[in-house]
Amino acid sequence: MSDGKVVKVALIGNPNTGKTSLFNRLTGLKQKVGNYPGITVEKKQGFCKLNETVKAEITDLPGTYSINPTSLDETLVLDTLLNEENETFPDVIVVVVDVENIKRNLLLFTQLKDLKIPTILVINMVDQMKRKGINIDVPKFEERLHTKVVLASARKKIGVEELKSAILNYKELDTTPVSKISTKIDKDFFTKLKSALPEFPLYKSWLLITQNQEFDFLTDTQKKLVTKFREDVVCIRRYQHKETIFRYKVINDILKDSFNVDASKATNLRGILDRILTHKIFGYVIFALILLFIFQGIFNWASYPMDIIDGAFADLSAWTKSVMAPGTFTNLIAEGILPGIGGIIIFIPQIAILFTFISILEETGYMSRVVFLMDKIMRKFGMSGKSVIPLISGTACAIPAIMAARNINNWKERLITILVVPFTTCSARLPVYAILIALVIPNKPILGFLNLQGLTMMVMYLIGFTAAIASSMLLHKVLKVESKSFFVIEMPNYKIPSIKNIFYEVVEKTKAFIFGAGKIILALSIVLWFLASNGPAKFKNAEATIKAQTENTSISKEVFQKKVASYKLEHSYIGYMGKTIEPVIAPMGYDWKIGIAIISSFAAREVFVGALATIYNVDSDDGDNATIKQRMAAEINPKTGESMFNFSTGVSLLLFYAFAMQCVGTLAIVKRETNSWKWPILQLVGMGILAYISAAAAYLILS
Amino acid sequence: MQDILVYIALVIAVTFLIKKFFFKSKSTKKGNCGSDCGC
Prior knowledge:
The complex is a heterodimer of chains A (703) and B (39).
Chain A: E1 6-13, H1 19-27, E2 31-35, E3 42-49, E4 55-60, H2 72-82, E5 92-98, H3 102-113, E6 119-124, H4 129-132, E7 134-136, H5 138-145, E8 148-151, H6 160-168, H7 181-185, H8 187-196, H9 202-210, H10 220-230, H11 233-258, E9 259-261, H12 269-277, H13 282-323, H14 328-345, H15 348-364, H16 366-380, H17 388-393, H18 398-404, H19 411-420, H20 429-440, E10 445-446, E11 450-451, H21 452-479, H22 499-533, H23 537-540, H24 542-549, H25 557-570, H26 573-585, H27 592-600, H28 607-619, H29 628-634, H30 647-659, H31 664-674, H32 678-702
Parallel strand pairs in A: 1-4, 1-5, 5-6, 6-8
Antiparallel strand pairs in A: 2-3, 3-4, 7-9, 10-11
Helix pairs in contact in A: 3-11, 5-11, 9-10, 13-14, 13-15, 13-21, 14-22, 14-28, 15-22, 18-31, 19-21, 20-21, 20-30, 21-30, 22-28, 24-25, 26-27, 27-28, 30-32, 31-32
Chain B: H1 2-22
């Protein structure tokens, strides 16, 4: 039994083996998501209680097909396992394999086993064994692989306790390598390697000399030896091929003895579903119907909790003013902070519904079919089939989506994907679209079962996707992508979605949205409120000025207060800033108040609603308990006398936010991923020009 | 008193925003590009 308090566990496996489901099953909500030091690859860690005194710290490493990395994500697996000084270097490795793809999945296992780190093999999704006619002789498997084998189903909670017990007793695990590559490839070469680096297991030395990267943990002498061994590149490549062939021979031998599939018992529902869902006509129709259903759901179901949240924040502002002593700090809370925060909290229902649907599509295995289906279209526009993953991920957030482009091997295709992903409608655009659509698009049924607002939301998503495709085509021609790449995607089995996995995914994504943007919005709300509530001499003399102006007219106290509030806002610091940019934004139909919200939302798009809520709250005289939507609807354009947020301004704003690069975080990540300021600046300017022209044209045509 | 609290909140907010957007933590590795990225 382990005598330590914390056992470090590395969870490793091929993509689509149910690794994350197992991680969720083991750790529950005791998870933390961060980044690996110095890079932006997500690092998922969690804790699991093994017994009263020992717990496991589990690191969910990125999915990889082999220990030889082909992308940055996969490099992390290698770095974690080779460097014993690494803080996540494991006491024990848990390798997860899919029972239906065991032959391919075992390649990685045999490589890891040869590193002589205690390793447990988890054969996942065993609940499918009977239906697929699969039989496994576990004792024979354990004997041949020199390891502990756990049959598990993370979804059905099978084998989890057995796995915990195996982790607890990891010191008893056999560390004998599975495949003795040294004797099968070139005995002399490996003998020399062993004597040159005797301090490492032989397979670790082999990995050190076969990679194209520097390892900081090596001493200068070790580095020199490694460099010397790397000199004969042709020989090393030949040996790597031999190694793979040899490993598959070993795996075949093992499987022949201990694993068999009775094909007569297997059902072919998957084949039938695949033919329908990836059909060249029905496939697209089904995908379009699913999207339509999602956007209808976002609008129809989310409206009730959103109204409650909106009303609650308006009441909270009024209540704060009534219980706190009058003064500037009370005003800051009631007019600045609460409306600003309310402007983000209100969108939790819509974000949660969107991610619930996306998680269901991923969980069922349908998303991979969409990627396959869309590949046929993507290729026509110069993007790789793999670009679909970042484009779909972009509906959540452009930042992880741009990082997901690392899977694309061809640099120019990857660059094009990085440049066009920000057009995809991210969750930050959702609050902006939601409030504008609710204000300017009538809530009426179409064809009896569709809702016009939901349909408009879907059109906005399609506009974003079309802009991405069109820009890709343009960039493809400008950048002259000549090299070709291949599109390979693994189709996972169809599964009944796990409610637990969906719940964790939705909680994590919603938390990231709320807390990621929440801090910025809170800080900006304070700054905006201050700038809107203070100003130079004219601001301070507002009451006297209005009194002088209305001396000979009889106006009510309310009208007088309204005039003072408007005059103050116009002559506040923020008013002067807004007035300065007004000539530039006027062609798009915006006044200086909207201009301020646009500038503020350059940090993050969702700030737009919170910023307007703060500005209109300072300006308002219609009580403290009006909702954000009511305040925006009540805003009058002084030049036309009509509602500020009418159809033409609304559509203009929708198009502006569809195309503009209003996200500092995305620019930073593009700089980081391309290692140059050239590309983010190109994105900022290009998308800005497109946004300006389309918004101005829409306003001109519709007004 | 309330004015002081407002100024404290303002200073904290401005400091946070400056730190967030102008003083990013430095990375310990150079770039994230693959071997074929041409950068």
